[in-house]
Amino acid sequence: MAGAFPQFARKAPRGASVILHLVGRRAASALLTLLLVSIVVFTISGLLPGDAAQETLGQSATPAQVAALRHEMGLDRPGPVRYVQWLGGILRADPGQSLVANMPVRDIIAERLPNSLMLAGFTAVIAVPLALAMGIAAAVHRGGKVDRVLSLATLSMVAVPEFLVATLGVLVFSVKLLWLPSIALVSSEASLGDTIRSCALPVMTLTFVVVAQMARMTRAAMIAQLDAGYVEMAELKGVPFGRIVLWHVMPNAIGPIVNAAALSLSYLLGGAIIVETIFNFPGLASLMVNAVTSRDMPLLQSCAMIFCAAYLLLVLIADVVAILSNPRQRA
Amino acid sequence: MTLAAPETHQNVTRRGQITVSGLRIVVGPPDAERAIVEDVSFAIEPGRTLALIGESGSGKSTIALSLAGYARPGARIAGGTIEVGGERVDLMDGKALRGLRGRRVAYVAQSAAAAFNPSRTIMAQVIEPLLVHRLASRKEAMARARRIFASLSLPDPENIGERYPHQLSGGQLQRLMAAMALITGPELLIFDEPTTALDVTTQVEVLKAFKAAIAESGATAVYVCHDLPVVAQMADEVLVLQNGRTKEAGSLGTVFGTPADPYTRALLAAADHGGLTRLPRPEQECVPLLRIDGLSAGYGKIRDGRPEVPILEDVSLLCGRGEAVGVIGESGSGKSTLAKVVAGLVPLADGEVLLDGTPLPADLGGRSREQFRKVQLVFQHAETALNPVKTVGELLARPLALHHGIRGAAAQKRVAELLDLIQLPAATAARNIRALSGGQKQRVNLARALAAEPELLICDEVTSALDTIVGQAILELIDSLRRDLGIAVMFISHDISTVRTFCDRIMVLYGGRAVESATCAAFARGPHHPYTRLLLESVPQMDPAWLASSAARAAGTGLPLNREICRFEPRCVSAIRGRCNCEAPPLRQSQGHGQNHTWLCHHPVEALGAE
Amino acid sequence: MTLFLSFARSLPLPGRIGLFLVCFWLLAALAGPLLAPYAVGAFVDYDVFSPMSGKFWLGSDYLGRDVLSRLLWGARYTVFLGLGAALLASVTGTSLALVAAVHKGWVDEVVSRTMDTLISIPSKVFALVMVAAFGSSLWLLLLIAAVTYVPGNFRIARAIALDLAAMDYVTFARAQGETPIRIALGEILPNMLHPLLADLGLRFVFIVLLLSGLSFLGLGVQPPHADLGSLVRENISGITEGAPAIIAPALAIATLTVGANLLIHALKKGKTA
After folding, report:
1. Where, by residue number, does the polypeptide cross the bilayer (chain A) (predicted)?
2. What is the pLDDT of residue B111?
3. N or C: which end of chain B has fewer CB within 10 A?
4. How far away is chain A from the Cα of C172, in angstroms, using its nearest Cα?
């Protein structure tokens, strides 16, 4: 039958290899972006600011002392060389010594990273299903009461500063009701119940911040599909609405929805900076704030790179899901 | 009774009887509603086909959809009765409507590309009506689908269902959508402009398949269409609509043969090109204005005279001063690319474009002010060709300032003259472009090109976005301007019958190659390239017997992978095996009529046969 | 004024609320110092964190200063820093986008790649790195906030500009031999203004949240200046008493940003409907 189907006869490499190729390209592009990000981060924090040696020693230091320290810190070498050394350190998972804590940056991060991941994980587990439910409910009841209420609520929620949510949370649950601790004490000795209790307020705050954006984007993704011609066709075939949503719309909306979830979760990274600080949560974000306050550049750079890598990873995952869910790219 | 086969439906006697009376459909909020359909009544006897005809905004699609109890978002059925097979559709609740749709009333949409879900296989979507109405098991349903695929002469009916929509051509999808409608054996089939999006050579096969399917299923059909020759092939009865109201109704023969209403007469006249009376041009010496020699162009980087994505190859064309030359081609033929190359928007990869004997620089950068002025473009869609933030006056004044340095009061005077030329009142100058109708916008679009006082006007499908009557008027305007102002016109169109009546020379493009070119007189005498023949035979005629007798036939689909051989070979019914699919076709010239008729074909002139 | 009223009436209820809140804060920022009952740094209450009273409408802060007066002064910093940075970000981003859209090819490649890189750095992280490197004087904060939100504006403006650059009227202008600058400013930009205005509003909301956040962390506006975020920070110890000194400035920021967001949304909807 190939004769009657000339357009089928010319088969490009199909299936798994195509997908692998596409995913590989996205991954390579993400890595390239990460490399460029590292240049930006290093240029801003390592090259542009004034002389770290002068700063460390203060105004009273003699030029000779400063020059000696500059040499010791490697500041007398050209920028690109310093960048390559710095990047090499990060790639070897040895980004150097924290200037303030006087211990390896790696050790400090190793201690804090699991806490941040736990916080993000808890939040994602609660926020993602909640946001999807809200977004889908609003889209399905478009223009109805549910939609209008949710729209107003999420529109307001995205613009509320995290510290207001956190402050009100503390006021209500810790100060008035005395249910939850206002300071998150997390340690390996604490029991699971204590850990959950102490994480409750930070997780609630972060969820509040993330859910609104995610729900709005989910709604938009669903509505774009509900307006498509095939939905009208399905209605004219007598397909029940539930089946239209699940069988027709979902496979097409899943890519954009995952994208929405990933982008919103990436907002967690920024939101966590305020929330971790308020609740004294020993995570990566509050560590980064400390690094800024104390101008501890090696620590700051490492934290920034981890946040950027996490963002790019989330976007990459969303891209891959979009590729997998689209038959145009699958077959 | 839900499992009863459609053949033993309880309302045997009234099955397929459609009665609509006093139908009123409105849009807008309840306190400010506006009727888009008002007091429309008709009845269709079982097994008959009613065509709803009219121009855009006539409400024909809205009425057709209401037969399935459906109104598009924003609209609602506000009055009247709709009966299908003895049951009141207008009184049905959601559940009853779901039982009706897809089972007793089925719908075929205009764009199959939009109506099929891109993420599901064709088979899953075609059998869905059977499954959701619990009329058959999955296995039976698939078997039935394959039988229908075969009866609609779809290729590879056993496996075509496993494909996704994006893997199929427009004509195939349109037939597959008909299969989806036919699968439950409905008593009413609604066709909503089902071939409007197709090329004319694809349309023939699809129309034949639809006609056979309607006859075989015995269903009543409603056929929405603005193309009267197509209606003549498909319909038994006709209802003429304008602005949501009935203008005329009756049998096909009566309405088309002896139209009573002036509006119907205008529609018929436009469809027949009756309004077009072109003065025969005296055979005069051709003073070349535009000469294209061996042009190749496309997109992407150009290497050794070949672009990365070649569109046009080895195209030559001559256009004399004050002449009209028609470039005919279907989608993908490269006709719009040709316009863009001449205008400098797509760089020339190889060959030459001479204007007044001087070669035009390959792209915009090298062109002089005079060269910009001499070649003017008129686009298909006036909505997107005119900047929406500007007034008509501003739009027309810009080329005056740019090309002629005319500003201020002189410019205002000239704008008024231009508006007069295109038969719009001078007050139009102050209006925003958004406030104009489609036809008015297209006139402004034309006036803006004329403001530059060009020597060559390139008209790219200037009427295809317009209703027939409006388009007809624009064509007449262009023709009269050409005669009065002596401007040469390059007329790019998919519609061979329009081009034929309008032009002094004709070129037929297929797959980026000029397969045939001729002066109008030579073209009328023939013979023709097999593709031109297919094109001519595919244009629907007002004669209702045309479809059955049409010889239009294509062998396959698509373009050959080998770019050297004839681009039409896969579809050509008279292709010579071993020659057409192996060697590049030679350029042949007509011996009898001098050098004014050429075509690209292996067949010698005698074998192509004169008309 | 009548024009303004008819505009307000054309908005749906959430939009009207938004308009009211935005106007309220704009007026407060403009006239605040005139209305403030006390000097901004004056210690006027012997008590600290005192509750709302006739003398101190919003109570007193951790040093016994009048919260209302400090709030009115703080709003100035928040509103004007936000507006300035949002304008700067939008003008920069849009100019770059127009350049990229008109000069496709390598110019677009380089600018887009740079912006893609910058947008991959979460905004708060980016701002923190810059604050660490350069410090946080008022002018620096304005610049940092603007730079942080340039890529987002660029991405949106470029998408709109590219869509418009593909329109037939731009093609027509090119075929007339119009210069790229004239095409960008005369044909493309006028059609971008409405969506760009909405984006400007959105950038304003983001920037207010960012700068308040930074000030809340003690990394933003530095004493003796104080924006609304700084007021929340300096009174954080009042939380155990639920003092208005901490709640009022936090609510002030929220009403400003939520109001702006509601207004933008209502305007966007009105345009598409």
Report:
1. 27-48, 117-140, 152-175, 195-215, 257-279, 299-324
2. 87
3. N
4. 32
Please check whether residue C9 touches B, CB under 8 A. Answer: no
Q: In what order do the strands lie in the sheet with B34-44?
A: B34-44, B18-27, B75-84, B87-88
Angle at C120 between CA C114 and CA C123, to 5 degrees: 105
Q: Which residues in chain C have Cβ-Cβ distances shorter than 8 Å to B457?
A: none
Portion 174-233 of A in contact with B at CB < 8 A: 228-230, 232-233
Nearest to C168 among B385, B403, B452 (CB): B385
DSSP β-ladder status, B34-44 and B375-378: unpaired
Look at residue B523 in the predicted model and tell me its pLDDT.
Answer: 86
Q: How far apart are CA B480 and CA A146, in angstroms?
A: 60
Tokens linked to C134:
């350069």
Domain boundaries, chain C: 15-272
CB B421 within 8 A of CB B427: no
Domain ranges for chain A = 105-330
B172-181: pLDDT as tens digits: 999 999 999 9
CB contact under 8 A, A167 and C205: no
Q: How far is B127 from chain C (nearest CA, A)?
A: 37
Q: Would an 8 Å CB–CB cutoff place B364 in contact with chain C?
A: yes
Least confident window among B349-353, B364-368, B489-493: B364-368
Chain Cα centroid distance, residue B392? 29
If DSSP codes are grouped into helix, strand and coil, which group holds residue A320? helix
Q: What is the pTM of this model?
A: 0.85
Nearest CA to A276 out of A172, A202, A210, A196 is that of A202
Please give the average per-residue pLDDT across B240-251, as a whole number: 94
Residues C108, B210: Cα–Cα separation, whole Å? 50
> Tens of pLDDT along B423-455?
899 999 999 988 898 889 999 999 999 999 999
ipTM, 2 dp: 0.84
Interchain CB distance below 8 Å, B345 and C172:
no
How close is the nearest chain C Cα to the Cα of A155, in Å? Answer: 7
Are the Cβ atoms of B72 and A232 closer than 8 angstroms?
yes
Q: Which two tokens stand for residue C115?
A: 């912006």
Full DSSP string of A238-279: T--HHHIIIIIIHHHHHHHHHHHHHHHHHHHHHHHHHHHHHT
SS3 of B247, please?
strand
DSSP B585: P
The rounded distance, in Å, linking the Cα atoms of B593 and B506 is 15
What's phi and psi for B101, nearest 5 deg? -70, 135
Q: Identify the CATH number of the domain defined by range A105-330.
A: 1.10.3720.10
- Statement: residue A129 has pLDDT above 90: yes
Q: Tokens 């912006």, residue?
A: C115
Give Cα separations from A50 to A67, A85, C135 (angstroms).
14, 20, 11
Judge whether residue B540 has pLDDT over 80.
yes
Is the domain spanning C15-272 CATH 1.10.3720.10? The answer is yes
pLDDT in tens, B73-130: 889 999 999 999 989 999 999 999 999 999 999 999 988 888 999 999 999 999 999 9
The alpha carbon of residue C165 is apart from the nearest alpha carbon of chain A, in Å, by: 24
Share above pLDDT 70 across residues of chain A, in percent, rounded to a whole number: 88
Backbone angles phi, psi at B24, to 5 degrees: -135, 125
